[in-house]
Amino acid sequence: MRITLFRVDAMPLVNKKKCVSCKKCVKKCPVDAISMKKGKAQINNDICINCGKCIKVCPVKAILRDREIVELEVASNIKSFKKNLAKSKSKKSRNRMIKNRMRQMKVQDKVLRDTLKEMKHLKA
Ligand code: SF4
Ligand code: SF4
What we know:
The protein has helices at residues 24-28, 53-57, 66-85, 91-120, and strands at 13-14, 34-37, 40-43, 63-64. The chain is mainly alpha-helical. The strands form two sheets. A two-stranded antiparallel ribbon has the order 1-4. It is flat, with a radius of gyration of 18 Å. Residues 12, 28-29, 31, 33-34, 43, 48-54 line the site of one iron/sulfur cluster (SF4).
């Protein structure tokens, strides 16, 4: 089961609005994790080793750092949840929605933590 209640990316992420398609990051990446899609850089997180070289070489700061990604993801998650909350018809249902979503997020958190534990065993 794959839970995707909220986005939780933590690898470099390209801000497509800022990317000017120079391909400098593509050339710099040591593991060929970056490709161009519809004229914009795209990082394959399964291949990326998080070396940060693409972040340094980008002339327009289009590639976000972990801290910036966290801020962006949190803001985006809250914005989308607020949209759903606005549909609730009463204070009671609003609070129920919040409580339920928090419960789901705790499950999501547990899945991530347990997956991390399992991944540690994969190290050679
Ligand atoms: S962080 Fe390093 S490995 Fe990951 S995409 Fe950028 S250059 Fe490639
Ligand atoms: S270096 Fe920056 S601007 Fe150039 S392709 Fe990569 S992300 Fe886009």
